[in-house]
Amino acid sequence: MGYKGVLYKLRGLIKFGEITTKIRGKVFVNKIGEIRVGKNLSIVGHPWAVQITSTKGAKLTIGDHVYINAGVGIAANQEIIIGNNVKIGPRTSIFDSNYHRMDSTDKGELSKKIVIGNNVWIGADCTILPGVTIGDNSVIAAKSTVNRDVSNNVLVGGSPAKLIRELIIEDGWVRD
Predict the structure, then answer these.
(1) Pairwise pLDDT comparison (147 vs 106), residue with the higher score
(2) Which of 21, 24, 30, 56 is the most buried (most CB within 10 A)?
(3) Pairing relation of β-strands 162-166 and 154-157?
(4) Which of 35, 75, 34, 38 has its CA nearest to residue 57?
(5) To which H or E segment does residue 6 belong?
(6) According to the model, what pLDDT value does residue 18 have?
(7) Is 137 helix (H, G, I), strand (E, B) or coil?
(8) Which positions ≥6 away from 113 have C-beta within 8 Å?
(9) Any idea of the CA torsion for 163, 76, 83, 123, to the nearest 10 degrees?
(10) 172 pLDDT higher than 70
(11) Residues 75-90 pLDDT 10s
């Protein structure tokens, strides 16, 4: 199915931004909840398909000028907010739910809101876990697992992700 066919099937499912949305390859959208997409969204669904899901009552908000690479999975069961000028590397998973309890004494919430700030770069093969906020201008190194909040203007990496160094970001600078 060509680009126009994909957009035709998605029309009515997603509120697209005012300027061009670019979709290449396979992109599966499971929309039961709300999905809002800003201007200039670019998704590359090859060689691996991208899957975007918003379950009943959930909200997924994707800002302006966001790039989603191949093999990315985003699943909103409560709420996921992705800021402007965000780059998401291939095979990254962003899930706001654990989907199941760890044991019979686990009474906590299964889903927790995820917020990804503006001008964030998430490397390849990362996992962003429920309840995490990633600050503006931060970088998540490849193969990292983010299980706690990340400050603004930092590079984190590892599993679990830890501070590697602070970044110097000039006002108004946007990552290419």
Answers:
(1) 147
(2) 21
(3) antiparallel
(4) 34
(5) helix 3-10
(6) 52
(7) coil
(8) 78, 79, 80, 81, 96, 131
(9) 40
(10) yes
(11) 999 999 999 999 999 9
Residue 136 pLDDT > 60, yes or no?
Answer: yes
Q: Taking 50 as the threshold, does the pLDDT of residue 176 lie above it? A: yes
Task: For Cα atoms 111, 26, 115, give the angle at the middle one, nearest 5 degrees.
Answer: 30
**What is the reported pLDDT for 72?**
98
**Residues in a beta bridge with 60:** 35, 80
CA 51 to chain centroid: 11
Given a contact cutoff of 8 angstroms between Cβ atoms, the answer to whether 143 and 124 are in contact is yes
- Which SS3 state, helix, strand or coil, does residue 146 take? strand
Which residues carry out catalysis?
100
* Matching residue, tokens 């201008």: 137
User: In angstroms, rounded to a whole number, what is the distance separating the alpha carbons of residues 94 and 73?
Assistant: 6
- Give dist(CA 138, CA 113) in Å, integer: 18
